[in-house]
């Protein structure tokens, strides 16, 4: 509990708390930046990237319908708001050797919005 409180305070001090995102705005970012490779929703399946339903709490590199890089499978990451936000900021820094070809996002509000949108799919496709 203490670590969670400290991480939340750190997020508030450094900018936007990721749980405060706007899912409607996040949908626009997902469509523009993520949707060509990743899918969400009832019929989402891995394609050029893994499907992102129920991403929070999932161990990185574990969906069965996508061929992950060895780096991602060995990363030991469990996706939560903090780990996913860091990955969205700089994928190559968080998982050197990742197959994801994305330059990263620097705007913390956009990241918060995207995470809020992904959270709307936390109980889909299970």
UniProtKB/TrEMBL annotation:
Top-level division of the source organism's lineage: Bacteria
InterPro entries in the cross-refs: Cyt_c-like_dom, Cyt_c-like_dom_sf, Cyt_c_1A/1B
Keyword presence, Endoplasmic reticulum: no
Pfam families (UniProt xref): Cytochrom_C
A GO term for molecular function: heme binding
Signal peptide: 1-19
Heme in keyword set: yes
Cytochrome c domain sequence ranges: 21-122
Keyword terms, alphabetized: Electron transport, Heme, Iron, Metal-binding, Signal, Transport
Protein name (record): Cytochrome c family protein
Lineage, highest ranks first: Bacteria, Pseudomonadati, Pseudomonadota, Gammaproteobacteria, Pseudomonadales
């Amino acid at each position: 509990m203490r670590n969670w409180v400290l991480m939340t305070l750190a997020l508030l001090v450094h900018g936007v708390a990721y749980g405060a995102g706007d899912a409607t705005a996040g949908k626009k970012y997902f469509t523009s930046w993520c949707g060509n490779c990743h899918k969400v929703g009832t019929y989402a399946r891995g394609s050029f990237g893994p499907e992102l339903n129920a991403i929070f709490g999932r161990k990185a590199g574990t969906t069965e319908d996508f061929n992950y890089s060895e780096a991602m499978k060995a990363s030991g990451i469990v996706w939560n708001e903090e780990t996913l936000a860091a990955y969205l900021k700089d994928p190559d820094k968080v998982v050197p050797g990742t197959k994801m070809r994305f330059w990263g996002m620097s705007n913390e509000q956009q990241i918060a919005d995207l995470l809020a949108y992904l959270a709307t799919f936390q109980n889909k496709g299970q």
